[in-house]
Specification:
The complex is a heterodimer. By secondary structure, chain A is α/β, with parallel strands linked by helices. Chain A has 2 domains: 4-90 and 170-270, Rossmann fold (3-Layer(aba) Sandwich), CATH 3.40.50.300; 103-169, no CATH class. Chain A contains 11 helices and 12 strands. In chain A, the strands form 2 sheets. Chain A has an 8-stranded mixed β-sheet with strand order 6-7-8-3-9-10-12-11, sandwiched between helices. Chain A is globular, with a radius of gyration of 21 Å. Helix content of chain B is 32%, strand content 21%. In chain B, a hairpin with a 2-residue loop joins strand 4 and strand 5 (75-76). The chains are: A alpha/beta, B alpha/beta. Chain A binds chain B through residues 41-42, 139, 153-156, 182-189, 192, 210-214, 216-217, 240, 250-252, 254-260, 262, 264-269, 271, and chain B through 47-48, 154-155, 184-190, 192-193, 211-215, 217-218, 238, 241, 251-253, 255-261, 263, 268-269, 271-275.
Chain lengths: 321, 322
């Protein structure tokens, strides 16, 4: 059975102009120990999706349809007190900016103690031992238990966040762009550490990023999101080597390489569509160089075939209405 | 190459840090020298703390150098650049959300720049020129964009606006401090293309400051690699990328994420990627503590930049010219 199963999830933001649909019919399965990456531009709904999965959405955002099952339990139906039983113990979240997510007035050690007190009945010795242990896992000396966030470098802060997330040995760690504020060298070292920890401890990772080159070597599967929908989903190497959706193609061609002859790149022209008043057909059609008549009329379905799913009329043609 | 647009000679900037007992001198940049030619894009590459932004800020006159000389268009800029020099060498900032006044329309910021730096234009000419500038950087239709507020523009559009503002004063050199690092990957390439286009069609030089080697390769003619305030390697972009000499450049190359490359099995597994803060530095090479090739000599003195036969300049004792 899947560890995490998201089915047909819809999330809307209430706005003055009407509801904006940020997540639109997303379904995902995550197996125990699997690393699933979600990539897309800002505003594609990837962070909203993570927050919806972790049940962290607040007004004006709300889940308007679908379900999130964690280990068989529907998280969307739980009361706050019941949810609290699952947080940190079963799944934890690593936020984008450790600088803002850590409490600046408490030492790292005190913040670890907070989590233990709230979710376990451990005595002080056990808490201290476990705190030193998780910091060691991310190569931070136990002396830093007494350090405040401002005394750590950006890379160390981010690693401390990951240590905190692993404190109670959750089965799923949800990460929202943990590397985006880091330099390349620190970024690569953090990704390696996440990978090594995952191999050792066997947790699953759900990882959101706008820079797919970050996850290219680390994730098992890759989901490409556009305008609140999953447009392509498959094994990471497969999506990289042979992207099928025109948008995935565009994303691949958007970043320059250090390899091979230098060549001019074009990127993807235009902007994502309005979420309040989305196009009738394919969401990507207005920016798609290969758009056909049918694309502006009929919304393509996400079609599964040989372990990969694509939402495009070019790949899976439909009969014209 | 004709006379370079910008010559930086021995640029040094120190900051006093700490309190009464812990007083120290932070060496943000030390004896940095380089040229930028006419119609050339030069990339300053380094991690945070390497001093790359300090160099840009000294050049823009945001603070004076502690030592060294800046010669711009053949004239010594002195401790503080004049308005004319600042107009000819404007800066585009990293944060497209913090660098534009949110309560004024787009047209205002451009008109202001035009008023200050090109007072000869009449009101109607100014408007015409502003529209032309916006369209120059791909904000089309310019007349419509002119009347919008910054919050109506996306991050990529705002950075384009930053370049339009910079262009308004007829610059010969634009200082671009990480102009794309806060943008989505998919939008970056459009802006990099704007930079290439400005160089090719307007002959504007650009000092492109970045930590992203791949984007530097995409736009820059020459590349300067900084580590902890000193230049460790410089040369033609393709040379530096294909045959990196300094161990630090090699580390950067091996950690740059590239899905087209297989995952390198390299030193970065143990290297946690922490560049030092250079407070009261010792005499040795600043990369020595992280360097796999370190020797006693490296800890005793700092290697000077040596020109190799490939025209690359490298500051490392371990590098031999084949």
């Amino acid at each position: 059975m899947s560890l995490l199963s998201v089915s047909d999830l819809y999330v809307e933001y209430e706005t003055a102009a009407g509801p904006a649909r940020a997540v639109s019919g997303v379904s995902l399965e995550l197996e125990p120990g699997e690393f699933l990456a979600i990539v897309g531009e800002s505003g594609c709904g990837k962070s909203t999706l993570l927050f919806a999965i972790a049940q962290l959405l607040t007004y004006p955002a709300r889940v308007v349809g679908g379900s999130v099952h964690f280990d068989g339990v529907d998280l969307t139906s739980l009361r706050p007190e019941e949810l609290r039983q699952h947080r940190w113990r079963d799944f934890s979240v690593v936020m984008q900016s450790a600088m803002n997510a850590l409490n600046p007035t408490l030492s790292i050690g005190a913040q670890l103690v907070d989590v233990c007190r709230a979710h376990t009945d451990w005595d002080e010795r056990r808490i201290a031992e476990r705190s030193a242990e998780v910091l060691a896992m991310v190569s931070i000396d136990a002396a830093h238990l007494k350090s405040y966030p401002f005394q750590l470098s950006g890379g160390m802060r981010q690693r401390a966040m990951i240590a905190m997330a692993l404190l109670l040995e959750p089965r799923l760690v949800i990460m929202d762009e943990p590397t985006s504020a880091l330099d390349v060298v620190a970024q690569r070292s953090l990704m390696r550490q996440i990978q090594a920890l995952r191999e050792r401890l066997g947790f699953s990772v759900l990882f959101v990023t706008h820079d797919m080159s970050v996850v290219s070597h680390f994730s098992d599967r890759l989901a490409v999101m556009y305008a609140g929908e999953v447009v392509e989903l498959g094994a990471t190497r497969q999506v990289f080597d042979r992207p099928q959706h025109p948008y995935s193609h565009g994303l691949m061609d958007a970043f320059p390489s250090l390899l091979g002859a230098p060549k001019p790149l074009t990127g993807i022209a235009g902007n994502p569509p309005s979420l309040v008043d989305p196009p009738a057909g394919c969401q990507f059609a207005p920016r798609c160089a290969q758009a056909m008549d049918v694309c502006t009329l009929v919304r393509p379905e996400l079609v599964q075939e040989d372990g990969r799913a694509v939402r495009c009329h070019l790949i899976h043609p439909v009969d014209r209405p | 190459m004709s006379e370079p647009v910008l010559q930086v000679q021995g640029l040094t900037r120190h900051f006093r840090v700490g309190g009464f007992r812990t007083r120290g001198l932070l060496h943000a940049t030390d004896e940095v020298s380089f040229d930028v030619g006419a119609g050339e894009i030069v990339a300053l590459v380094g991690e945070s703390g390497s001093g790359k932004s300090t160099i840009a800020r000294v050049l823009a006159g945001l603070y004076p150098p502690s030592a060294g000389r800046v010669v711009f268009e053949g004239r010594d800029v002195g401790r503080r650049p004049s308005r004319e020099v600042r107009g000819r060498m404007p800066m585009v900032f990293q944060d497209p959300f913090g660098s534009i006044n949110p309560v004024l329309r787009v047209g205002h910021s451009i008109a202001r720049s035009l008023k200050l730096h090109r007072p000869e234009l009449s009101g109607a000419e100014r408007e015409q020129e502003a529209v032309a500038l916006l369209e120059r950087v791909g904000l089309i239709p310019g007349a419509d964009v002119l009347r919008r507020f910054p919050h109506e523009l996306s991050g990529g559009q705002r950075q384009r606006l930053g370049f339009a503002q910079a262009l308004a004063s007829h610059p010969s050199l634009i200082l671009a401090d990480e102009p794309v690092s806060m943008l989505d990957v998919s939008i970056r390439i459009g802006l990099l293309n704007v930079m290439r286009d400005l160089r090719d069609s307007e002959g504007v030089s650009i000092l492109y400051i970045t930590h992203d080697l791949a984007s530097a390769r995409y736009v820059a003619d020459r590349m300067i690699v900084l580590y902890a305030g000193r230049i460790v390697e410089q040369g033609d972009t393709e040379r530096v990328i294909t045959t990196p000499q300094h161990p630090y450049t090699r580390l950067l190359m091996s950690t740059a994420p590239d899905p087209r490359l297989p995952l390198a099995d390299d030193a970065s597994v143990t290297d946690l990627g922490e560049p030092p803060k250079v407070i009261n530095p010792g005499p040795g090479c600043r990369f020595a503590p992280r360097c796999p090739l370190v020797t006693e000599q490296c800890r005793a003195s700092t290697p000077a930049l040596v020109t190799l036969r490939s025209n690359q300049r490298v500051a490392c004792y371990a590098v031999e010219d084949e």
